């Protein structure tokens, strides 16, 4: 009994000593957080920049729900809709439900739902120059090859699905046909062993998500995640600007709802709009005032083109070439 009591006492003392060291480290973390993070960031933006609080709350809730749907957390999104009394239309949810159903099947290495979807949307995918359907057929063919010589006849029969893609994917089809020579010896020991790489499944999930979102008019990344990542980059700069504004007692520096007081570089990944500025009017182009390429190759905005029309004719401001304004073509940067 005395030995057990001594052992328990020593263990308790050791635990207390270890806890003391951990507690000391944890307390330093708290102080480091207080020292390096601003506890109040709401003051960075004036309330006048936003619409009403109700509207702001509704936009935020919608963005969170859309993010949850896009991440496949359907039950969490439904629960949030109920608790926040947010009314989400079924037409809004349907694309996300379909995408998640197909992606779940792909994660289980079931190509059926994805192939069915790709075939039903074949024409629109071709307009996007998508190779999704071919990649799905290729992956199914590779699965048959992995089955060994017993699946050789089935694989040869399935190869007929490659016919519509022969012109664009000739080299890849030749590689798959060549792999049949090594089927009896085992593909894993042949020069075609790369066909059995599991990375093909991750690639097909990524390709499907990108092409399906593009076809359905959805962004590959949720707007909430993009906004959050952009905010992490922009917030430190805005906090520094706020400190300067307060120090110099400047007013009215940030009064516009649709623009920041300074330009903040977020990187090319966050470029979503045209960055072309009209050299004539010195204005950035927009959907209502897009860039127009003239016959001579020079580019100006549509508003500038309309202002330069004289007697039904347009003379390029950069070269003496005279042309018909209707011959100008809209371009997208």
UniProtKB/TrEMBL annotation:
It is found in: Cytoplasm. The keyword Transcription regulation does not apply. Residues 95-152 form the CTLH domain. One of its GO terms (molecular function) is ubiquitin protein ligase activity. Signal peptide: none annotated. Its main location: cytoplasm. CDD domains: dRING_RMD5B. One of its GO terms (cellular component) is cytoplasm. The keyword Cytoplasm applies. It comes from the Eukaryota. GO terms for biological process: proteasome-mediated ubiquitin-dependent protein catabolic process. Residues 278-319 form the RING-Gid-type domain. A zinc finger (RING-Gid-type) spans 278-319. Keywords: Cytoplasm, Metal-binding, Zinc, Zinc-finger. Core component of the CTLH E3 ubiquitin-protein ligase complex that selectively accepts ubiquitin from UBE2H and mediates ubiquitination and subsequent proteasomal degradation of the transcription factor HBP1. MAEA and RMND5A are both required for catalytic activity of the CTLH E3 ubiquitin-protein ligase complex. Catalytic activity of the complex is required for normal cell proliferation. The CTLH E3 ubiquitin-protein ligase complex is not required for the degradation of enzymes involved in gluconeogenesis, such as FBP1. Identified in the CTLH complex that contains GID4, RANBP9 and/or RANBP10, MKLN1, MAEA, RMND5A (or alternatively its paralog RMND5B), GID8, ARMC8, WDR26 and YPEL5. Within this complex, MAEA, RMND5A (or alternatively its paralog RMND5B), GID8, WDR26, and RANBP9 and/or RANBP10 form the catalytic core, while GID4, MKLN1, ARMC8 and YPEL5 have ancillary roles. This is Protein RMD5 homolog B isoform X3.
């Amino acid at each position: 009994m005395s030995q057990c009591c001594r052992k328990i006492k020593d263990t308790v003392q050791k635990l207390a000593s270890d806890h003391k060291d951990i507690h000391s480290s944890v307390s330093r973390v708290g102080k480091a957080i207080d020292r390096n993070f601003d506890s109040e960031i709401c003051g960075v933006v004036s309330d006048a920049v936003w619409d009403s609080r109700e509207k702001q709350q509704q936009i935020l809730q919608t963005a969170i729900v859309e993010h949850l749907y896009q991440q496949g957390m359907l039950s969490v999104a439904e629960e949030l809709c109920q608790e926040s009394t947010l009314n989400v239309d079924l037409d809004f949810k349907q694309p996300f439900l379909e995408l998640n159903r197909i992606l779940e099947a792909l994660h289980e290495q079931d190509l059926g739902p994805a192939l069915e979807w790709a075939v039903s949307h074949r024409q629109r995918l071709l307009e996007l120059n998508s190779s999704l359907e071919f990649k799905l057929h290729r992956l199914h063919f590779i699965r048959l090859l992995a089955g060994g010589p017993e699946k050789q006849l089935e694989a040869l029969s399935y190869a007929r699905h490659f016919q519509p893609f022969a012109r664009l994917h000739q080299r890849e089809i030749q590689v798959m046909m060549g792999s049949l020579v090594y089927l009896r010896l085992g593909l894993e020991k042949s020069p075609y062993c790369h066909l059995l790489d599991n990375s093909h499944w991750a690639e097909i999930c990524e390709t499907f998500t990108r092409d399906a979102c593009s076809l359905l008019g959805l962004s590959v990344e949720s707007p909430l995640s993009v906004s959050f990542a952009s905010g992490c980059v922009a917030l430190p700069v805005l906090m520094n600007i706020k400190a300067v504004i307060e120090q110099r007692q400047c007013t009215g520096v940030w009064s516009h709802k649709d623009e920041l007081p300074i330009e903040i570089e977020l990187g090319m990944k966050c470029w979503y709009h045209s960055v072309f500025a009209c050299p004539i009017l010195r204005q950035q182009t927009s959907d209502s005032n897009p860039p127009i390429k003239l016959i001579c190759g020079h580019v100006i905005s549509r508003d500038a083109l309309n202002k330069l029309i004289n007697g039904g004719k347009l003379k390029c401001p950069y070269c003496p070439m005279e042309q018909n304004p209707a011959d100008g073509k809209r371009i997208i940067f």
